[in-house]
Automatic annotation (TrEMBL):
Signal peptide: none
Protein name: ATPase, P-type (Transporting), HAD superfamily, subfamily IC
Transmembrane recorded as keyword: yes
GO terms, biological process: proton transmembrane transport
Family of the protein in this entry: Belongs to the cation transport ATPase (P-type) (TC 3.A.3) family. Type IIA subfamily.
InterPro entries assigned: ATPase_P-typ_cation-transptr_C (IPR006068), ATPase_P-typ_cation-transptr_N (IPR004014), ATPase_P-typ_cyto_dom_N (IPR023299), ATPase_P-typ_P_site (IPR018303), ATPase_P-typ_TM_dom_sf (IPR023298), ATPase_P-typ_transduc_dom_A_sf (IPR008250), ATPase_P-type_domA (IPR059000), Cation_transp_ATPase_P-type (IPR050510)
GO cellular component terms listed in the entry, alphabetical order: plasma membrane
PROSITE patterns: ATPASE_E1_E2
Cation-transporting P-type ATPase N-terminal domain segment(s): 2-75
Subcellular location, record wording: Cell membrane
Coarse class of the protein's main subcellular location: membrane
PANTHER family, per the entry: CATION TRANSPORTING ATPASE, SODIUM/POTASSIUM-TRANSPORTING ATPASE SUBUNIT ALPHA
Name of a matching Pfam family: E1-E2_ATPase
Amino acid sequence: MNPHRHDIEKLYAHLHSSAQGLSQAEAARRLARYGPNQLEKIGGQPLSIRLLKEFTHFFALILWLAAGLAFFAEWREPGQGMAMLGYAVVGVIVINGLFSFWQEYRAEKALAALRNLLPRHTTALRDGRAMQVPVAELVPGDVVVLAAGDDVPADCRLIEAFAVRVNTANLTGESKPKSRATTAPIEAEQVAMRRDILHAGTSLISGNAKAMVYATGMHTEFGNIARLTQVAQEPLSPLQKEIAHLSRLVALFATLLGVLFFFIGQSIGLSLWANLIFAIGIIVANVPEGLLPTVTLSLAMATQRMAKKNALVRHLTAVETLGSATVICSDKTGTLTQNRMSIRQVYFSGAQLFPDELDGAEPLYDIMRHCHDLRRVEHNGQQQWQGDPMEVALLQATPAGTTYPRVDEIPFDTERKRMSVICDTPQGRMLYCKGAPETVLPLCNEMMAEEGRLPLDDESRLRIMNEHELMTADGLRVIALAYRSVPQQSAHREAGMVFAGLVGLVDPARPGVAEAIATCAAAGIRVIMITGDHPHTASALARDIGLGLDPLAIIGERLCTMSDTDLQLLLDEPVLIFARTSADQKMRIVQALQRKGEIVAVTGDGVNDAPALKCADIGIAMGISGTDVAKEAADIILLDDHFATIVTAIEEGRAVYDNVRKFLTYILTSNIPEIVPYLAFVLFRIPLPLTIIQILAVDLGTDMLPALALGAEKPDSDVMRRPPRPRNEHLLSRGVLLRAYFFLGPLEAVAGMAAFFFVLHGGGWTFGRELGLHDPLYLQATTACLSAIIAMQVVNVFMCRHPVFSVFSRGRSFNRLIVYGIGFELLLLLLITYTPWGNALFGTAPLAGEVWLFMLPFGLGMWLLEELRKALIRQRIARNGTAGNTVR
């Protein structure tokens, strides 16, 4: 049954209970039947299976193949150093797999946060007596007793209610407290409109209540959200998809090339051992072993930079995903606004005034000072007012003054839509009233004016209501204030009042939000507001922050009646706001945007936001006002709860993608000079110019720090003036492939092979002569090839800083990490070349000074040719007028 739609007596009969609650024995029986009042974890894949997946994806399988071949070669021909190669490749697989698994495991803490949000104990009636009961032991049929400040422990139907107002922000996203002061059945289906129901996860701001529990644990609305959060599939990030695409492409190419040249070697009479070396060499040379560690470390460095900008990143790939976002679905309260009510306008003595323009408004201040249900509490060692944020704003706006004792109160309820208090003052007993203008104004027969108190005629009433409508149209929450002196024995205490004025309150926009919205527009990012608040309030804020002058506001009830097709069409509207939305509706909006091909970022702070945060491409939680549930479901946490921080993080995310492409170009460039020696070895029957362990010295040694330095480059000046990159744009684009494999790579291969033959011919080698693996001349020649490749990579790191701009144009943004990276690269090269352990480990030998001089012209030539290529591209951009979309 639907408890909110039926009489309380029917609920008693259905639950076999009464207003006196259950007996201890019956509660124990029901606990055994229904289970504890806590959230349960929905079964998923075992940890062992998830861990295994990190070591069996396609990229890892190719590396396992290379390691297996290395171990097989060591078994067939011991002492050739192939085991060391195998261990190195296995190390790369293990490190990347464990790191990825750890990141995924941390995300599973969301359920623990959901459990911890529920209160631990509550007051329930057992055997007719009120007693403290663990929340986990509540069962359907229990009667709980709640007071202001208490958390609601389960879904309950009200039996008795006195001035109850509930903070439902965690559940519905609505910032304003909701009245729950009726025990009569309610037909409304929306959670926010069920005024006879208290839901788990909400809390009482004011009043007292007695309520019957009808749903516990996973059967509550809170539990439904928990189920949505767990069932929601977390999509792969764009960067994860790109790395997977790149890995498959490169690994497949490497494997096919290795197999092809294995058979070529067989056909020209090479031994099985030589062919195995060749096949492994081709695979290892083509698979960029350093790519995944470099991407991981680069993203980790980006998270550190973002943390300094108040954006805490929980999942590394979220950095780049945010940079590719095309839509931001933002909540309102606390993100776009300051999450505190303040007085914007006051209608007093016949005029619209700002709060600082009030003069002689002591009657108004008396009402604001006395007519509230706030209480003083201590928080972090300071006294604060606790209760309705609207009442806090009214009280804090009053100047210091005398507070009179309260002798009676007529509480607020949804039927009256007003509240009154009676206080003893030096002028006698005074009644102070505040409430909705449409309920307060009819009870007034006088009004305050500059001339004093005047009769309230029809014309005056019409003028006041017109002012009310104007303030409401501006998105203000309007409260009417009135007062009167009260005789000792008065039957109609709220009749014959004096209208004091109207107060318009607003949760103001955060400073900098309008500028951030404008930056999003320039960057081609659409912002959609999704809130639990009233559509008028949301629309007014949208106009204030520049989101749109005439936004289309859609409420949750209308969304319920829409088909998926209608929703898809609706999302084409240029300026769109969703108001009064529930948790599942917010998630539905996000999924509809994703089906349209959008990369969606979602902000949220409440329990109701958790499912949308998890299923979005990028979930962003509020660090100050956000619940633990929202934080654990999100990828990024804003430490300052400010929308402008999102825009700063997007800039960083876009820079990350650009930087990944820079160091991808840098890493892939060295693949060609690593492949060419093996092709020459097979096709021309020369000594092998570069060994496999030397390839790993480049991929996992000398290239790593310079690549990381490229990953730390600052954003380009135009990065937020470009539209988001197309969803179908790949990291390994045609431009990157041509530049790395067919321009820079061949230039490095020429340098490496030239240095190899320079040493061979200098030592008297002739074509066709075989050299032993430990021949000093051979060791020097392979060292020369390795050194030339590394020297060319030193030049290449400067050229990869930007695909179009000259090396010299980047001088203003000096990157000290590049200097450190090159220093490390050269130091490692010297250790490999001139130390005994380096010689023994990598099969190298010291080089003469003339060999280094021989390499210099090749580096200079590559730099000049690359500068010429960039100049030609800049000329083409200037002709086409596409400077804002720099070639990537």
